[in-house]
């Protein structure tokens, strides 16, 4: 699982009521990337197998025997950027409703079936995709594939359930706004992607949610939830043949509707400093900064990954040492890169006292200038690569981690690019990192957000 493909989920996901809404969550100017070809007979047996069914469904499997759990991930090529202005939040609404009953099973059945065998279920909505996943004992493969197929094609959207879930989502929105971490990151996205679908609220607005009824949600569902717009990833101690047989009996029966890819919207680049100050009930301030960055299929993103790690991606990064340890201006600081299909974004977030906002912003820009002028040290480059190697090894130990990494890659860049990600990072030079700093971390064209305590508190 790569930092590039995961950061939208790790940094931006808000898990409430069994779901996670990731904006970027969160990611080609076309629909999901073409699948990688199935490996040849000489390929190692541990690698993934990829194929496309006659109806357009992409299937990726891997026989992974680290445990007795099979991870079954269904990815749909629809997310927040697909929502029309009067349908904001519909992609996320789908995430809720697909657990609320099919034409055969009533509300609660899916959760009971999964938990009854000791399994786990969840879903995530991002800007470029939605995913539903099940973690089950290996002997429950057939049940898991059947459940996901029922959810994907046979959900009913009962009006009473729509009303209930609408209230749940509205509460999610309130919780998100009350959380300074999620609220600040969402707002930085809005500033960087102003006027573009990537700057929209993932959860929608009260007005669009209240207008969502059975007919509108069902039309959205029937349009996008079609086999040619899906990828199914199955990883665990199972054979490709067994998975394909289960998929043929379920997903394979659905017809291709001819849905065409939706090009990802390319945001207008920032051409000035965009600033916003928001008064909040918290006593501590938050500084948020954001820059345009490479989209998910841009090879320059590899150097940006290392760049953000060197600047503020670890406890020993440049900005952590100077701002937190030496000058005691911040209690925490982090920087990360999220790659989307139409663009990308680098975000920085620091917690600090309100009086230190301007000085902290100035020092951030000073450290950016330094790395633009001299680049990183060789030690910094090697430490950043080591961090990615360790994180990748940890994340892909499990069936769940591999399935998630493969699915995000299949939907937003390519499976083959994911498989070679760490090897490419090892080859990134100090000069490439320096060039990335010059190209993407402008000291004049960026977004700056400040959360400050309300006056009079």
Question: Which topology of the largest domain does CATH recognise?
Answer: Cytochrome Bc1 Complex, Chain A, domain 1
CATH superfamily of the largest domain, called what?
Metalloenzyme, LuxS/M16 peptidase-like
- Ends distance: 44 Å
**Structural class category:** alpha+beta
Low-confidence stretches: 1-18, 20-45
H/E topology pattern = HEEEEEHHEEHHHHHEHEEHHEEHHHHHHE
CATH class of the largest domain equals Alpha Beta
Strand arrangement, major sheet: 1-2-6-7-5-8-4-3
Strand content: 15-25%
**Average pLDDT over all residues:** 90
| Secondary structure: helix percent | 40-55%
Radius of gyration, in angstroms, nearest whole number: 22 Å
Largest sheet: 8 strands, mixed
Shape: globular
The number of helical elements comes to 17
Quickly give the CATH architecture of the largest domain: 2-Layer Sandwich
User: How many β-strands, per DSSP?
Assistant: 13
What does this structure look like?
This protein is an alpha+beta fold and 457 residues long. It has 17 helices and 13 strands. The protein has helices at 3-12, 90-97, 109-115, 141-154, 159-178, 180-192, 206-210, 214-224, 240-249, 301-312, 318-326, 357-374, 378-395, 399-412, 415-419, 421-427, 430-440; strands at residues 14-16, 19-21, 49-52, 58-63, 69-76, 120-125, 130-137, 230-236, 274-280, 285-293, 330-339, 344-352, 447-453. An 8-stranded mixed beta sheet has the order 1-2-6-7-5-8-4-3, with helices on both faces.
């Amino acid at each position: 699982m790569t930092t590039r493909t995961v950061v939208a989920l790790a940094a931006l996901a808000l898990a409430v009521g069994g779901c996670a809404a990731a904006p970027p969550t969160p990611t080609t100017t076309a629909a999901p990337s073409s699948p990688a070809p199935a490996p040849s007979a000489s390929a190692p047996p541990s690698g993934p197998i990829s194929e496309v069914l006659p109806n357009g469904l992409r299937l990726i499997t891997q026989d992974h025997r680290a445990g007795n759990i099979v991870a079954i991930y269904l990815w749909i090529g629809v997310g927040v950027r697909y929502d029309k202005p009067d349908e904001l939040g519909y992609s996320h609404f789908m995430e809720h409703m697909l657990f609320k009953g099919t034409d055969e099973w009533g509300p609660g059945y899916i959760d009971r079936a999964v938990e009854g065998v000791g399994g786990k279920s969840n879903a995530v909505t991002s800007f470029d995709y939605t995913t539903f996943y099940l973690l089950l004992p290996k002997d429950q493969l057939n049940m898991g594939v059947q459940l996901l197929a029922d959810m994907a094609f046979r959900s009913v959207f009962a009006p009473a359930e729509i009303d209930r879930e609408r209230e749940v989502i509205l509460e999610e929105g309130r919780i998100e706004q009350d959380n300074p971490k999620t609220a600040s990151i969402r707002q930085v996205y809005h500033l960087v992607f102003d006027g573009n679908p990537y700057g929209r609220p993932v959860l929608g607005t009260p007005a669009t949610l209240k207008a969502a009824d059975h007919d509108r949600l069902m039309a959205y569902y029937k349009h996008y939830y079609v086999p040619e717009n899906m990828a199914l990833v199955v990883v665990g101690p199972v054979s490709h043949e067994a998975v394909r047989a289960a998929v043929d009996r379920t997903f394979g029966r659905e017809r291709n509707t001819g849905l065409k890819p939706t090009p990802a919207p390319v945001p207008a680049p920032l051409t000035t400093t965009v600033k916003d100050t928001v008064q909040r009930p918290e006593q501590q301030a938050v500084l948020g900064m954001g820059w345009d960055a490479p989209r998910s299929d841009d090879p320059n993103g590899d150097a940006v990954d290392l760049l953000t790690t060197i600047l503020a991606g670890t406890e020993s990064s440049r900005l952590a040492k100077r701002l937190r340890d030496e000058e005691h201006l911040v209690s925490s600081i982090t920087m990360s890169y999220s790659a989307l299909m139409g663009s990308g974004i680098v975000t920085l977030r620091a917690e600090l006292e309100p009086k230190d906002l301007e000085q902290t912003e100035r020092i951030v820009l000073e450290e950016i200038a330094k790395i633009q002028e001299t680049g990183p040290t060789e030690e910094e480059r090697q430490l950043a690569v080591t961090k990615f190697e360790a994180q990748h090894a940890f994340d892909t130990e499990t069936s769940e981690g591999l399935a998630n990494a493969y699915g995000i890659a299949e939907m937003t860049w390519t499976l083959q690019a994911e498989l070679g990600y760490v090897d490419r990072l090892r080859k990134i030079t100090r000069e490439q990192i320096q060039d990335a700093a010059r190209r993407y971390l402008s000291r004049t064209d960026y977004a700056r957000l400040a959360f400050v305590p309300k006056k009079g508190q």
